[in-house]
Design brief:
- Helices cover 67% and strands 10% of the residues.
- It is built from twelve helices and six strands.
Length: 311
């Protein structure tokens, strides 16, 4: 099989190399998930969330060092703007006392002169319920996708699309685990969006492959050549669609602020790997499974053939 791809067309070799690269990235992602896990946000773990503003612009690192002197537990400080900050604390027995200590410190300091806008507690039970419901929604979406692909495509193309979809989700989760980016409800929502986007990309390529296989009933062209031609004919449309979507997501990433940063990172990564997997996995795996024009030949019985041969 390796010699087949190495001796094939340039496009075939590139697709095979891309599939091997995807396999290595999936292994790396699974390793990161098993070793480091996901950095769940307060939406899932529960805890205290406090938003406050300062009278003047303060550097995030300086403010974080100041709060650390008046806070005995773990906390996460993020900047929502030059003078707007958000502090998250894990739930603990001393969390209430810690909140009073650091809030008094930042509000009474003349250089910071902070004003607390809101302070809320999110229970871990609510977080567990949200996580379960989110996972259930993603599972339901995957089942619906599998049913749709089973009806629409020949099983080899359907398997390629499902594997590409799982590949995209694992790589996004692996990135969040490797970089320990906060995983919250907005990121979970982006995974549902990635499922739809990746599926659309794979269907575009799969449809074109199926069309070209149907018109090649005489087997003049090899399956590899047909798949390469299908990718070439859809590549421009795919790149334009992905490029415009990436520009929009990048704008959200850079300009929408910290609350939507995780959502934008996940969606940006999902679009990139989704475009990649629709070519290197969704179109290549069916070829490895033996996809050919014979799978789309119309079979007729002897009586029908006799009628067709009659003048």
């Amino acid at each position: 099989m390796l010699n087949y791809f190495l001796k094939g067309e340039k496009g075939t070799r590139l697709r095979f190399i891309g599939m091997l690269l995807s396999a290595m990235l999936v292994l790396l992602s699974v390793f990161a998930l098993t070793q480091k896990g996901l950095n769940f946000g307060l939406d899932f773990t529960g805890g205290y969330l406090t938003e406050f503003t300062t009278s003047q612009s303060v550097e995030l690192k300086e403010l974080q060092s100041f709060i650390a002197k008046n806070h005995n537990g773990e906390f996460e400080l993020t900047a929502q703007g030059n003078s707007h900050f958000q502090l998250r604390e894990a739930p603990s027995a001393s969390a209430t006392a810690n909140s009073l200590d650091w809030q008094s410190a930042v509000t009474q300091n003349d250089d910071i002169n902070a004003q607390v806008l809101s302070s809320a507690y999110i229970g871990s039970q609510v977080g567990d319920e949200l996580f379960d419901q989110g996972c259930l929604a993603m599972f339901a979406a995957m089942i619906a996708v599998m049913i749709y692909l089973a009806v629409r495509f020949e099983w080899r193309l359907a398997v390629g699309s499902v594997v590409a979809l799982v590949h995209d989700l694992i790589l996004v989760l692996g990135l969040f685990s490797l970089l320990q980016i906060e995983f919250n409800l907005t990121v979970l929502a982006s995974l549902l969006a990635i499922i739809g986007y990746s599926l659309n990309d794979s269907i575009i390529v799969g449809d074109r492959v199926r069309e070209l296989l149907r018109v090649q009933s005489n087997n003049v062209l090899s399956p590899a050549t047909i798949i390469n031609n299908a990718i070439k004919s859809t590549l421009t449309r795919t790149l334009i669609t992905s490029g415009t979507t990436l520009a929009t997501v990048a704008s959200v990433w850079l300009l929408a602020g910290a609350p939507l940063q995780g959502f934008a990172i996940a969606l940006f990564t999902g679009i990139v790997v989704g475009t990649f997997s629709s070519i290197c996995i969704a179109a290549t795996l069916p070829e490895l499974l033996g996809l050919s024009a014979k799978n789309y030949e119309v079979k007729v019985d002897a009586h029908t053939q006799t009628l067709l041969d009659m003048p």
